[in-house]
Amino acid sequence: MEIFILPLMVGLKGHDHNPLVPNGVLQVRPQVMTGNKIIHQGEFKMMNISRSALASIVTVVAFFALAPTSHAADMDAAKALARTNNCFKCHAISRDKDGPAWKKVADKYKGNAGAEAKLIHHLTSGEMVTLADGSKVHHEIIKTDPANDTAQIKNLVDWILSL
After folding, report:
1. 88 and 153 share a domain?
2. CB 116 within 8 A of CB 161
3. Same structural domain for residues 89 and 35?
4. What is the pLDDT of residues 53-95, one digit of tens each?
5. With contact defined as beta carbons under 8 Å apart, do 115 and 109 qualify?
6. Which one of 45, 92, 101, 119 is CB 3.0 to 4.6 Å from 157, fit for a cystine?
């Protein structure tokens, strides 16, 4: 799971249409985010900047706000991989079956920096799992095409953790 620290622009002060605020002051509130969820918000800070720097900041923020994110899970590809590997036999998105609901898995690992690595290992190692009825079996190993494509497995894990 990736964690991002972003300065959220709350107010661009010093704009020509706002005569009550001095020129060249930017108000920011830092946020720590994981996926699309804010997990911490910092205090408001005032920064003195030049108009050219302000224009550059606005351009960069607009670019990233409008650009597609490469870290976002490809839901369709993740579901296709899950279907191909028969994952929906034991798992569902919102309800427990023989295995836990994937939303429950996402909740369990929320905020855990090692969640992605743990789940990738879980899906690729064949480790023992306990089913709803108490029996123990080896978890099926995810198969990809091409074989051992870690990007596909990572995408599946990222999708599960995003639920």
Report:
1. yes
2. yes
3. no
4. 656 666 665 555 554 444 568 999 999 999 999 999 999 999 9
5. yes
6. 119
